[in-house]
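Need a sequence for this fold. Nothing fancy.
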């Protein structure tokens, strides 16, 4: 049985919330009693995701936002606090893949794009979440890195650079804000059954087959399994957990 949490009276913000791991986390926060701000670049999809939660009796707010635009991020966080009165938890999940390419052949455009979303986007979200949380003197943030933040794989240099960067960002902010009552950690998903991975399995079947051979559990992870880890990191059960990069990867990084 999965643990359950009581987040009644608390507010969570989730980016990349219209599908995959973000949607799973938003659903889990809502099921645990939290009001949830769902943030995503896809306005129609995030509106539908929030409607699913409100139709089920939960408090949910849909916010269309491009995490590469700091003004949009600041506005989304401010709107969350204006609507629900506070911000207790955040899962900074929005991310993209970069097309596989040799390290000598990756384009600057691909490097800049993947780092704009995966690293600068999380930096921006964390920055504006912290501005509210430091006033409260409490809060928990989980940033989404990846097994690609812990290892290196061929033809993934730009993507892995962005995900390694998330861990450095997380650890530095974690030690700065722990004395202020705010806990910051990262989750490092393995190969998870999400729309993004489905596209990779289809378009990069040979490379993905090799990656799957290194996942000892022998299956894809599920978005719900990542959501479980995120909720634990945000819960009082993880009150002494600060600055970790938690692998949730079916044993990939245990090699």
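Here you go.
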């Amino acid at each position: 049985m999965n643990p359950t949490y009581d987040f009644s009276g608390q507010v969570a913000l989730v980016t990349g919330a219209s599908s995959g791991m973000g949607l799973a986390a938003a659903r889990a926060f809502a099921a645990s009693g939290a009001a949830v701000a769902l943030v995503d670049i896809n306005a129609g999809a995030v509106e539908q995701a929030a409607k699913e939660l409100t139709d089920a009796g939960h408090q949910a707010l849909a916010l269309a936002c491009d995490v590469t635009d700091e003004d949009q991020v600041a506005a989304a966080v401010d709107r969350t606090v204006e609507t629900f009165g506070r911000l207790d938890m955040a899962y900074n999940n929005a991310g993209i893949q970069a097309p596989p390419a040799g390290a000598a052949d990756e384009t600057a455009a691909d490097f800049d794009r993947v780092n704009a979303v995966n690293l600068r986007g999380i930096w921006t979200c964390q920055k504006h979440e912290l501005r509210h949380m430091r006033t409260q003197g409490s809060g928990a943030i989980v940033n989404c890195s990846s097994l690609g933040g812990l290892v290196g794989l061929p033809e993934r240099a730009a993507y892995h650079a962005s995900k390694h960067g998330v861990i450095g960002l997380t650890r530095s902010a974690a030690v700065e804000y722990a004395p202020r009552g705010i806990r910051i950690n990262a989750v490092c998903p393995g190969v998870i059954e999400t729309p993004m991975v489905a596209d990779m399995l289809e378009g990069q079947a040979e490379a993905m087959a090799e990656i799957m051979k290194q996942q000892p559990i022998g299956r894809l992870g599920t978005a719900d399994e990542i959501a479980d880890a995120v909720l634990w990191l945000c819960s009082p059960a993880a009150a002494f957990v600060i600055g970790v990069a938690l692998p949730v990867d079916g044993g990939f990084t245990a090699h």
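For context: Residues 11-191+223-247 form a domain with the Rossmann fold fold (CATH 3.40.50.720).
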